[in-house]
Amino acid sequence: MAKSSPSRGLLVVGLLFLLACLLLFLAGMFAPRALSFLDAAVCPDGMHLDKQVSQHVNDEGNLVDSTNTVCVGEGQAPVDITPRMLLILFGLALVGGGFIVWSVRGIKRVA
């Protein structure tokens, strides 16, 4: 029983990474200022994260809203940072999944 505790710890860490991925996604969509700690990592100097909503007509002729997470700054054009945020989200998900797979393999070996 004691031998499986490191594997269970890896499982918990993996689940925390996946939870962080989900929370970052939701915060990016609904409250990008909650991600201000990522400003230095994803935005150019002097800019901060914000949400930009625009409307356009889709292929069926319907008017739809589009929400993007962008970096904005005074007197500067908004910079779309969707690819950078997706890289962070997929990275967290892959690392979390890796920890989960590693923990499951460790639990199977102990059992």
Q: What share of residues is helical?
A: 40-55%
Low-confidence runs (pLDDT<50, min 5 residues)?
none
β-sheet strand percentage: 15-25%
Arithmetic mean of pLDDT = 83
Give the terminus-to-terminus CA distance.
9 Å
Q: What class would the helix/strand composition place it in? A: alpha+beta
Description:
It is a single chain. With 111 residues, the protein is an alpha+beta fold. The protein contains three helices and three strands; from the N terminus they run H-H-E-E-E-H. Helix 1 (5-30) runs antiparallel to helix 3. The protein has helices at residues 5-30, 39-42, 82-110; strands at 48-57, 63-73, 76-80. The N and C termini lie close together (9 Å). A three-stranded antiparallel β-sheet has the order 1-2-3. 53% of the residues lie in helices and 23% in strands.
Describe the protein's topology.
Layout: H1 5-30, H2 39-42, E1 48-57, E2 63-73, E3 76-80, H3 82-110
Antiparallel strand pairs: 1-2, 2-3
Features:
111 residues, alpha+beta, three-stranded antiparallel β-sheet, 53% helix, 23% strand, elongated
In short:
This protein is 53% helix and 23% strand.
